[in-house]
Sequence to fold (224 residues):
Amino acid sequence: GQQLNQSPQSMFIQEGEDVSMNCTSSSIFNTWLWYKQDPGEGPVLLIALYKAGELTSNGRLTAQFGITRKDSFLNISASIPSDVGIYFCAGQGTGNQFYFGTGTSLTVIP
Amino acid sequence: ETGVTQTPRHLVMGMTNKKSLKCEQHLGHNAMYWYKQSAKKPLELMFVYSLEERVENNSVPSRFSPECPNSSHLFLHLHTLQPEDSALYLCASSQDSGLQDRAFFGQGTRLTVV
Fold:
């Protein structure tokens, strides 16, 4: 099956810093999604991207659909303690199935 | 609160036990899903139901048996599980099975097989 590589696996940052994480795939995707999962909760969709080159923001979060269609980036600006959690990407190729990344664990130090 | 409720939240079971996980959605969605989330591994789609019919079964062992009695409820019946089946089992729903990108997830059931 298709593989998604998500990096970094974990991040420890100071409150107020910006964060950047990315996902790359071995094949072309038509849709990229970014989720956040808090401890003990299910994933919540943050941003959905449907077009190569698309740049979409949701508050302090910005995500981009790479022009090669094989990667996507998520940036968080001015991090706050409630940004703590696991962020993971998902992508959809030519079929209907979505493939998920292994997640980036974010810790924000006050 | 996403509108998708899973019970129980935590479950510990022996390898010879039979148990069931329950999922309920109040969103009027027609598609429901079971996912398995293991530590350090990507989310794995197990089953997809659309209008109470199973439309996808991703090579899941028969010790996992799904049931969808109506479009609001989804069950996952478990029997003779193995320790490697310990994971977070997530239920999700979407308006239809072609809109997985718009799916809402439940909080999950943390399953431990001993």
